[in-house]
Amino acid sequence: MTSKLHMLLSKTAEASKFWSKYGNTYYKQTLEQNKKYIMDPPTIEKCQQLSNQLLYTRLASIPSRYDAFWKELDHVKQLIKTRKDLKTEDMGIAALFGLECFAWYCAGEIVGRGFTITGYYV
C-alpha cells in the first residue's frame, strides 16, 4: 500500500512540474486561439447579459427539440410495428444502444456511490 502511495505522489509531482513548466504557455495559447469569443472589457454586466442570452436562447429552442423528440418517437413506434421487416444490423444497433445506456447508468451509479463497486466505503 505504501508503494502505491509513493508512486501516486511521484506521479503527482511529475504532473505538477509539467503544468508549472507548460501550463502558462498552454493558457496563453488557448486564449490567443479563442480571442474572438472574449468580450472586452470583461465586466459583470456583460457576463450577466451573456448568461441571460444563453438561458433564453436555450429556452427558445425547446419547442423545436420537443417536436424533434416526438418525430423520433413516432419513428421508433413505426419500427416496432414493422419489426418483422427489420434487418439483423438494425436489431444489433438497437441492442448496442440499449447496452450503452445501461453501461452509462451503471457508471453513474458507481460515481454516485463515491467510486465504490459494492456501495460500501472502504
How would you describe the overall organization of this protein?
The chain is built from 4 helices and no strands. The chain is mainly alpha-helical and 122 residues long. The chain has 3 domains: 1-35; 39-85; 86-122. The two termini are 14 Å apart. The chain has helices at 2-33, 44-60, 62-81, 88-112. The chain is flat and about 60 Å long.
Q: How far apart are the first and last residues' alpha carbons, in Å?
A: 14 Å
Determine the fraction of residues in helical runs and give it as a percent range. Answer: over 70%
Count the beta strands: 0
Uncertain regions: pLDDT < 50 for 5+ in a row?
A: none
- Can you tell me the number of structural domains? 3
Order of helices and strands: HHHH
Total count of helical runs of at least 4 residues: 4
Average pLDDT:
87
Radius of gyration, taken over Cα atoms and rounded to an integer in Å: 25 Å
Topology summary:
Blueprint: H1 2-33, H2 44-60, H3 62-81, H4 88-112
What structural keywords apply?
122 residues, single chain, ATP synthase subunit g, mitochondrial, mainly alpha, 4 helices
Can you summarize this structure?
77% of the residues lie in helices and 0% in strands. It has helices at 2-33, 44-60, 62-81, 88-112.
